[in-house]
Automatic annotation (TrEMBL):
Belongs to the peptidase S8 family. It comes from the Bacteria. It comes from Mesorhizobium ventifaucium. It holds the Pfam family Peptidase_S8. Residues 127-303 form the Peptidase S8/S53 domain. This is Peptidase_S8 domain-containing protein. Residues 1-26 form the signal peptide. Keywords: Hydrolase, Protease, Serine protease, Signal. The active site is at 85 (charge relay system), 106 (charge relay system), 256 (charge relay system). The keyword Ribosomal protein does not apply. InterPro entries: Peptidase_S8/S53_dom (IPR000209), Peptidase_S8/S53_dom_sf (IPR036852), Peptidase_S8_Ser-AS (IPR023828), Peptidase_S8_subtilisin-rel (IPR015500). CDD domains: Peptidases_S8_S53.
């Protein structure tokens, strides 16, 4: 199996990509099985953290827009976020999203990030080694993919079903752009991400790159040095967003950490616009993205820009 996670690399200098082949479910979410994944409430430890919680309930790595959305009652309620990832590998990544330093599996970090951004959403874990098709829940579904597939999708039942669902616009798909400092879809060292290739051009997919921090007009952000960028393909550019991954604060790096933030945003937007389709939610995030928060904005680098929850939530309704 050649599925590679997009690292968050914890307290390390490099950005290693680890090969994993995990046979079954695991994790510390302590919940029953829902559908084909594991759903539940994220645990909160009482240990001290270098990323303290803010007065509005958000944490140091989050945009202020998140707290404003929560205060308005939009937390992702009624939306299901399925994190397809590694939940059976070693707990080899040390980081701190606000509950104190912890060792976690790659998938656990991704699910925790999505659940912290959208605490009202149902978080479902689906191990990417499972030979099962994607199962969608009732209501709006958001699917997070923070890994690459280095073999044709047709050989994998799960990934083929993911691509089929994306082509049908059946869910919002957030896909980590990758950590090779190249345009999405570019081969590196003889390998290519077939999952990214197959998702390019699908109506409800968002590729997500990583910024060095959340940007503001006064403190603009630039793309992290490791992050893949949008490139010259207009189909990628038009479905590419970037969000901050402040490694100095959380000890985690990679577009794998950026993607679940956008997954959480999609859930929050979906909890307001409850009758909107996945494609409408996708387009709302893309169409309201900011470019004035980015250093030397260029669509070939940043795609549509940095998502803005406040702008995405502003209308009374969307079409």
């Amino acid at each position: 199996m050649h599925k590679t996670q997009f690292s968050p690399v914890a307290f390390l200098a490099g950005f290693a990509v680890c090969l994993l082949a995990a046979p079954s479910f695991a994790g510390d979410f302590h919940a029953g099985v829902s559908g084909k994944g594991r759903a539940g409430t994220l645990t909160t430890e009482s240990s001290s953290s270098g990323c303290p919680q803010n007065a509005d309930g958000t944490f140091c790595w989050m945009s202020p827009d998140i707290g404003e959305a929560w205060a308005s009652g939009y937390t992702g309620s009624g939306v299901s976020v399925t994190v397809v990832d590694d939940f059976t590998g070693e707990m080899e990544e040390l980081g701190d999203l606000g509950h104190g330093p912890q060792w976690r599996q790659h998938g656990q970090w991704i699910a925790q990030a999505a659940g912290m951004v959208a605490p009202g959403a149902k978080i479902i874990e689906l191990d990417y080694s499972e030979p099962v098709p994607l199962t969608l829940e009732d209501g709006l579904n958001v699917i997070n993919l923070s890994y690459a597939l280095e073999e044709p999708v047709s050989g994998y039942q799960l990934e083929q079903s993911i691509v089929d669902a994306a082509r049908a616009g059946a869910a919002v798909f957030t896909k980590g752009a990758g950590n090779e400092s190249v345009a999405v879809g570019t081969p590196t060292e003889g390998n290519i991400d077939f999952l990214a290739l197959e998702l390019t051009g699908t109506q409800s997919t968002i590729f997500v790159g990583a910024l060095e921090h959340n940007g503001t007009p006064e403190n603009k952000a630039k793309l992290a040095s490791y992050s893949n960028y949008a490139g010259s393909d207009s189909e990628v550019q038009n479905h590419f967003l970037t969000v901050g991954v402040d490694s100095d604060k959380i000890g985690l790096s990679g577009t794998s950490v950026a993607a679940p933030v956008v997954a959480g945003y999609a859930a929050i937007v979906g909890s307001k616009f409850t009758s909107a389709t996945p494609t409408q939610i996708t387009n709302q995030l893309l169409d309201t993205a900011r470019t004035d928060t980015l250093v030397n904005y260029d669509p070939a680098i940043y795609g549509r820009g940095e998502p803005s929850l406040s702008r995405a939530l502003a209308p009374v309704s969307i079409r």
